[in-house]
Design brief:
This protein has a five-stranded parallel sheet with strand order 4-5-6-1-7, with helices on both faces. The chain has a two-stranded antiparallel sheet with strand order 2-3. The chain is 51% helix and 9% strand. The protein is built from 14 helices and seven strands. It has helices at residues 10-22, 39-51, 72-78, 107-116, 123-130, 141-152, 173-184, 204-207, 218-241, 244-255, 259-281, 293-298, 308-323, 328-344; strands spanning 28-32, 56-57, 65-66, 85-88, 161-166, 190-196, 211-214. It has 346 residues and is α/β, with parallel strands linked by helices. Strand 5 (161-166), helix 7 and strand 6 form a beta-alpha-beta unit. The longest helix is centred in the middle third of the chain and has 24 residues, at 218-241. Helix 1 runs parallel beside helix 2. It has two domains: 3-216, Rossmann fold, CATH 3.40.50.300; 219-344, no CATH class. Bound molecules: zinc ion (ZN). Zinc ion binds at residues 52-54, 67-68, 70-71, 73-74. Zinc ion (ZN) binds at residues 52-54, 67-68, 70-71, 73-74.
């Protein structure tokens, strides 16, 4: 993950690259913010920049610097396969791991989950991915012991030893206590990034040993509406053509956003459709601003009194399904078929 792949957060990113360039790197840092704020993205892009062999410094543009994305180190971190990058996260028993779950049992699952969701997945998304929707995940003593052990070993590649702890608030007390020493006396060349949503449930002793960075969602939301507009038009166009391969790719793109983002997108899309219906019914102009005049003129007339209710119900069903931990892609695919059918009934 490069910083340029992250939506918004320009100020935070510039601060992070400045810290790395200055060499004043804190050995234990806590990044706080909701999943859709891109905290895990920031952590991974931060480590990629830290290890990059050819850091790029821009003299123009919004980002002052970024990793190159092409050196061996960048590639290994981007694919989460760097031997000195260790990921820790809450787990629970599953049908496959029926007792004493540990992060290492789910290492491949977590990697795939992060890559699939572009590091924007929420804790609920992760539980749904593991199929443990009703259980509470946890970071346990065995995980803390593995962190301590990883940090004590020599680095494989001779560079930084990196540990990312995702959702440290899910650490149980024994695990948290076990970890304290590593935070207090960091081993040479090691960096621990804790990526969580709230520090209220973290032990005060942990909080006091880490440097905290709060990530605000402010500027992300503004940009995501522009992102939503483009995504919506691309999706609507495909609903007319119903070419399965293209539609499936578009739905993948939509499903790769975090759960909260998916819900926001559906809310946004439904509002646009209602707006089309109301304005057309009132004889007012309605512009989607898609950049394609023919489509802009045609689409609003497709939403009529004959199908607005079907559309409304389909969106609400999809929102409900996503809220209830359904697999995003399936919910969005079903919605696509229902909207496509509804639009033909105008
Ligand atoms: Zn690089």
């Amino acid at each position: 993950m490069q910083f340029k792949d992250i939506v918004g957060q320009r100020d935070v990113i510039n601060r992070l690259t400045e810290i790395i360039d200055s060499g004043r790197i804190s050995h234990a840092q806590l990044l706080l913010g909701a999943g859709e704020d891109g905290c895990l993205q920031l952590a991974l892009a931060y480590l990629q920049y830290l290890c990059c062999e050819h850091r790029q410094h821009n003299h123009e543009g919004e980002l002052r610097a970024d990793s190159c994305g092409e050196c061996p180190s960048c590639k290994k971190i981007a694919s989460l396969m760097h031997p000195d990058l260790h990921l820790f996260f809450p787990t629970a028993t599953t049908t496959r791991v029926t007792s004493n779950p540990r992060c290492e049992d789910f290492a491949a699952d977590f990697r795939n989950f992060v890559l699939e969701k572009k590091a924007l997945g929420s804790l609920d998304d992760w539980y749904a991915y593991l199929g443990i929707d009703n259980k509470q995940g946890m970071l346990r003593e065995a995980d803390a012991a593995a962190i301590v052990q990883n940090l004590a070993m020599k680095s494989y590649e001779g560079g930084w030893k990196m540990v990312v702890i995702w959702m440290p608030e899910k650490m149980n007390l024994t695990a948290a206590n076990e970890l304290l020493k590593s935070l207090e006396e960091p081993s040479e060349g090691s960096i621990i990034l804790l990526v969580g949503e709230s520090d209220e449930r973290l032990l005060p002793t942990i909080r006091s040993r880490v440097q905290t960075l709060r990530v605000k969602s402010g500027d992300r939301k503004v940009e995501s509406n522009e992102e939503f507009a483009g995504m919506l038009v691309d999706w609507l166009r495909l609903l007319f053509k119903l070419k399965m391969k293209e539609l499936s790719a578009q739905v993948d793109k939509m499903a790769s956003m975090g759960r909260e983002q998916q819900k926001q997108f559906l809310g946004y899309a439904l509002n646009v459709m209602r707006d089309c219906f109301l304005k057309t019914a009132a004889g007012l102009p309605c512009n989607l601003n898609s950049g394609d005049q023919k489509f802009d003129a045609m689409f609003p007339t497709m939403v009529t009194a004959n199908n607005i209710e079907m559309i409304d119900v389909a969106f609400n069903d999809a929102l409900f399904a996503i809220e209830r931990n359904a697999y995003g892609k399936i919910a969005l695919m079903e919605l696509s078929f229902r909207i496509s059918k509804a639009l033909k009934k105008r």
